[in-house]
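Quick one, T. Sequence first:
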Amino acid sequence: MQGRFGTGFYGVHTAGHFVYAGDASGDLFASSGDSKFFLHHAQIDGTRWMWQNWNPEGRARVVGGNVVLGNLGSRKRTLEDVVRLLG
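Structure tokens:
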């Protein structure tokens, strides 16, 4: 679902960011301006929730990706990372 950015495969999750809000050219942050995007994300979140519940002990604390979006050289994120919103 998440894709592998280094190979050019964006996956189902990221595809929704590019499809909604009418900017297929690449502004992945514009998607939240389209109300249909939230239906897409609800499906993604629900699918992840089901995946976690098939093996809660092994999957409830799984997190992936790098700390800096698009920077494959940045360290891997953890559940202890603080997410700062709005500054």
